[in-house]
Structure formats: C-alpha cells, structure tokens
Specification:
Layout (H helix, E strand, L loop, with lengths): L3 E3 L2 E3 L6 E5 L6 E6 L3 H20 L2 H17 L1 H12 L3 H21 L6 E4 L5 E9 L2 E5 L5 H14 L3 E5 L6 H11 L2 E2 L6 E2 L5 E3 L4 H10 L5 E5 L2 H13 L3 E5 L4 E5 L5 H13 L9 E7 H16 L19 H16 L3 E4 L18 E4 L6 H4 L6 E7 L2 H8 L4 E2 L3 E3 L3 H10 L6 E2 L14 E2 L2 E2 L4 H6 L2 E9 L2
Parallel strand pairs: 7-8, 7-12, 8-11, 12-13, 14-15, 14-20, 15-18, 17-18, 20-21
Antiparallel strand pairs: 1-2, 3-4, 5-6, 6-24, 9-10, 13-23, 16-17, 19-22
Helix pairs in contact: 1-7, 2-4, 2-6, 3-4, 3-6, 4-5, 9-10
C-alpha cells in the first residue's frame, strides 16, 4: 500500500483510513492510499515550517543543484512512474512518458533559474540615502493538483517554490496520487553540495498529503500558516479557492478552465493544421485545460478540413493506455463521461451534425472502462452546451466564418480566455489575432502547448496569475523595500 510523505518519512494517515485508486480503463484497483484529513495537513505544515528555516538559508546555487539531482532520480524511475500514471489516470504509456519529460524539463528550468533572482537599486530623493528591493521566499506553500496532468501540474508548483527557497505541501487529486507519490519520493532523496558537505533535501521541504479535497484541500486553504496557494482545476472550484484563501490574505494563483479556439484561415498549411487539430483536441483523451475546444474554419476550406480530420479519427485506436497499440485511453471519471454525453446530446438536439463518434465503443474489455469515441460535430449552434461550456473530453465542435474579424468575435464570446491559436501565412492576420484574441496565450501556426520558458495562465474565467516562465517565480517571492541612509 502506498504511503503519504510528511517530514521526509513515508507515513499512514493519522486516522489509519485508506481508499482505493482504480484504473479507469478496467475498473481494477491499482493500489490503496492513506485517506488524509486536517490532522495530516497540520503535521505536514509543521514539518514544512521547520524545514523552511534550513531551506531558505540554502544558497540559490545549491537549490538549483538539488533540483537537477531530483531530475536525474526521476529519470531513473521513469518506466515505473509512467506505468503507474497510465494505470491510475488512463492515459497511454506514450502520453505518460511525455508528461514525465515535461515535468523534468520544468524542474530543470527552475533549477537553472534559482540563482538568477535579482533585486534592484533605487535612487532616493533624500541626500545620502538609497533604496533597494530584495526578493525573499514566502514560506510554506500549498499546491493543489488536478488529475489530468498530475505530474506536470505538480511540477509547475513545486519547481518555482523550491527554487525560490520555499517549502511546499502537495495535495494530488484523490484519483491520481500514485505517480506523484513516487516522484516526490525521488525528489526527497535529492542531494546538493560536494564531498563531506553533501546533504539531502531537508526533511519536510516537500510533503504530499493524499485524501479528499473537502478535508485536505480545505485545510490548506484555511490554515493561516500556509502563505501561498497554487491551484489548477475547474473554474467553479477556483472561485471557492479564491474566496476561502482570501479570508487569510493568502497569495493565490488559479489556472482554471478553458474553451480554446483554433482559427484556421484558408491560406494556412492545412495538412499541418489538420494534424494539430487532432493532437490539440484528442491528446490525453481531450482532457486538457488548454486543449482545442472550438475549431473555427474559414468557409472555403471547412468541408475538406472536416473530412480529412474525420479520416484520422476513424483510424484512432481507443483502449487501455497500457497497450502499446492504444492511441486514446479512457475518460478518467464515469461522471465526466456522462456529462460529455449530455453535452453532445444537447448539441445534436439543437441541430448539430455528428460527423464521427458520439458514442461509447463496445465489446470486450472496452465495456469495463470509461471509454468514449473521439467525436466531431458540425453545424453546432452557438448556444449549445459544447459551445458555451468547457467540454473536458474528446469532443470537437466545428464552426465556420467568412472573415477573421468574425472569427475573433466568436472566439471571444466565451467566458474563458486561456489559450488560442491562429493558423495563417499572412503576417497581418496573425498580428491582428495576437492583438485581439482575449486569451492568456496565443499560438501562431503552432500546437497549444505550455512551454516552461513562457508564462502560462488565463484571463476572464480562466484564472489569475501565471505559471511557467520566470514570471511564475515572482509569485513565490516577496519583494521587500529597503532604505539605507549613510549616517
């Protein structure tokens, strides 16, 4: 049975209660994990607070070395981690390894950034005086991570937190704690320094508490000793996170839902755009906050584009992610599959045309899991649920437009504003989209992808603050104004 990690030790929950983690492709139990509650979080806070004194005094260079060593330890366990991730989340082994690669790349990025933190010198009007701005770690941080990319989205919180000199408590999604626990075990073993001065990460610098959001997550939000919360998840839950954490004046970043538009002009590289529409929507079974959720095609190319995309979907093998032949795994939760089915049914009832999919695959082992065929819809009404809500699964609604201005207006009609893309060879059209699309990120002739080097986050109902890039480090550092007078 898996254990939580608190204070550098693998432990059971205080209550000794456990719960099952099941494979969404088979329904089988993968493992049992501790069912943590408020008492476990309080122990983790105590351990993280004690470790903060040592870790914040560690040199930035050594923090970077520790993160780099952690990356090597994760790589050594990548096969085992990837298999666990596939079993608990449902994604294919290929997708699981890509996620591990993204995790490692992100930690390496912040390892290099740890020693690059800069303050500033400020001239003051007072004679013989000057000002400085120094940037210091905040303290104990909390990271609440969803189930769709549990490792990558854990890393976007842990990497900058540790690089800045903070300690952190990770609360993984209840359904995907196993690969996270194995990764954190490796990170806890990370060393820095040389020879007799070599040390391991302070016990309590990184902690993982498993259990329900209603107890573990709520204690992270309410406990005043947690000074920083980073949350990735749905917009409704994000509103709750901001409200509760705000009572304690915590620093909060929220990376929430999205309904990303992909706009394809008739002068685009259409072969590439078709392939990227497939990857952008159906990778990870469409369970991506920055996935392509609405496809806008210029009228003259719409029919051929849809036809070519449908041919790709017809060849896509749906099944257990552990199988090397599988190209799309199951939806993670049965409740989520039901919601997707209701969204598709609503669109069809309003007049949408089903081009492909729209049902559960049947037969053999497919009946055991939460599978759903990749689905393509055209003639989709703009007031249908797949148009106005976030569809968190393998469903792609297609819309047509005459002019770029029309496409941008339709794209911006959503309450969300996470990612977006424009596909064109015309630089003027690309620049107009960059300027006018209401989104935290715009990709030009490129797949919707969160690069570690660039800030990532949303506007409107898609969130507050940024992860990735040097900008993310700012959210883990407190600026302090200093005045020095020559006396």
């Amino acid at each position: 049975m898996a254990k939580m990690l608190i204070g550098g030790e693998l432990v059971d929950s205080v209550s000794k209660e456990t719960y099952e983690v099941r494979n969404p492709a088979t329904g089988e139990v993968v493992d049992r994990v501790p069912k943590g509650d408020e008492k476990d979080v309080q122990q983790a806070i105590q351990a993280a607070g004690a470790a903060f004194k040592e870790w914040s005094d560690t040199t930035p260079e050594d923090r970077g070395r520790a993160l780099m060593n952690a990356c090597e330890l994760i790589k050594q366990k990548s096969d085992e981690i990837g298999r666990l991730l596939s079993q608990e989340q449902g994604k294919t082994l290929f997708e699981a390894q890509l996620e591990i690669h993204h995790l490692v790349h992100g930690l390496e990025f912040y390892a290099g950034l740890a020693s690059k933190v800069r303050g500033s010198h400020v001239p003051l009007p007072q004679k013989g005086a000057y000002g400085m701005v120094v940037r210091q770690p905040i303290g104990v941080c909390g990271g609440i991570v969803p189930w769709n990319f549990p490792l990558t989205l854990m890393g976007t919180k842990l990497g900058p937190a540790l690089a800045a000199g903070n300690t952190i408590i990770i609360k993984p999604a209840s359904t995907t704690p196993l690969a996270t626990l194995l990764c954190i075990e490796q990170i806890q073993k990370a060393t820095y320094g040389e020879g007799k001065q070599q040390r391991t990460l302070p016990k309590g610098a990184v902690n993982v508490v498993t259990g329900p959001g209603g107890t573990v997550g709520e204690e992270l939000l309410r406990n005043p000793r947690i000074r920083r919360i980073a949350f990735t998840g749905s917009t409704p839950v994000g509103r709750h996170v901001m409200e509760v954490a705000g009572r304690e004046i915590k620093r909060v970043t929220l990376e929430l839902g999205g309904s990303d538009p992909m706009i394809v002009m008739d002068d685009a590289n259409l072969d590439l755009a078709v392939k990227m529409a497939d990857v952008g929507r159906f990778f990870n079974c469409g369970q991506m906050c920055l996935g392509v959720k609405r496809l806008f095609l210029q009228e003259s190319i719409a029919e051929s584009f849809v036809g070519n995309l449908a041919e790709i979907l017809k060849k896509k093998t749906v099944g257990n992610g552990i199988s090397k032949e599988t190209r799309m795994g199951p939806i993670h939760l049965e409740s989520q599959r039901k919601e997707i089915e209701e969204q598709v049914e609503d669109a069809r009832a309003r007049g949408a045309k089903l081009v492909f999919g729209g049902e559960r695959p049947k037969g053999g082992d497919l009946d055991k899991g939460f599978f759903y065929l990749p689905t393509l819809l055209t003639n989709v009404p703009e007031d249908s649920r797949v148009s106005v809500e976030e569809t968190f699964g393998p469903v792609l609604p297609v819309f047509t437009f005459k002019t770029l201005d029309e496409a941008i207006e339709k794209a911006n009609s959503s309450i969300y504003g996470l990612g977006s893309s424009i596909w064109t060879r015309n630089l003027l059209q690309a620049n107009k989209a960059i300027d006018k699309l209401q989104a935290g990120n715009v990709w030009v002739n490129s797949l919707h992808y969160g690069y570690d080097e660039l800030p990532f986050g949303g506007v409107k109902a898609s969130g507050v603050g940024r992860e990735h890039g040097p900008e993310a480090l700012d959210y883990y550092l407190e600026p302090k104004g200093v005045v020095v007078v020559n006396a």
